[in-house]
Amino acid sequence: MRSTNVTHPSRVKIGSSTVKSISIQNEDSFKYLELSFDSHGFLTSITEKDINTTYNFRQGFFYYKGMGNSTQPSGAYIFRPAVQEAVAVAGTIKIDVIKGNLVEEVRQTLTPWLSQIIRLYKNSTHIEFDWVVGPIPKEENREPISKEVVTRYFTDIHSEDIFFTDANGRQMMRREVNKYSSFKYDNTEPVAGNYYPISNRIYIKDAARIHRPLAVEIFNKPIIAFALLKNVTKFRQEHNLQLITEKSSNILFECHSKIISEESR
Prior knowledge:
Blueprint: E1 13-16, E2 22-25, E3 33-37, E4 43-48, E5 53-65, E6 87-88, E7 94-99, E8 103-111, E9 114-121, E10 126-133, E11 147-155, E12 162-166, E13 172-176, E14 196-198, E15 201-205, E16 214-220, E17 223-229, E18 232-240, E19 253-263
Antiparallel strand pairs: 1-7, 2-3, 3-4, 4-5, 5-6, 5-11, 7-8, 8-9, 9-10, 10-19, 11-18, 12-13, 12-15, 14-17, 15-16, 16-19, 17-18
């Protein structure tokens, strides 16, 4: 019988963070990436170690209250917020930090129905965001609220209201907030009107940086996303549409994102 060499995993350290700030990195002190988190467990910055440059980078979860009593309510095929301002998902984040030879990750539990893992693989130039949303709870003792859960990535990139999404996984299409080339844009629903379906990726870039353009590229499963502000990219993740179907409140949604910070292609 042919022998097989088996490499056993090294010991992994697991623990809850009680310090003022934490960080994870992939590889040595001079290569790849380092992520920094504040004392509340939120991601605050990304450092490219090979050029010793740090970028402000934050991420958070929000939800829009969906249009309910309407002839066109927010649903599985229509994204239609009742108001244009999103509500932040409140709660104290529980943090677990895991560090091993192959991967370092921060596990965040925001609520009983929302958790996320931010992961760095060794020898890799991307960051992985792995979140789980649902079942989204419904309100007790009052009328249920339809919820459209989104995540937002905040950067210091000055994109000038321009972003790019893939066309069914093929070429990248230039988009501009509140503008369309094929027809006159009617700004009656600015949030829904600026969401685009993406099969593969979305990115924004800093046009002001001439010598080394800065870009953030997000790879994702099929979902819809948009960049409504100059430096914010948003993803619609999950919806809890109580006024349409009770079944939607039991959906468990998983999504995986990869973010790459590098020179614009």
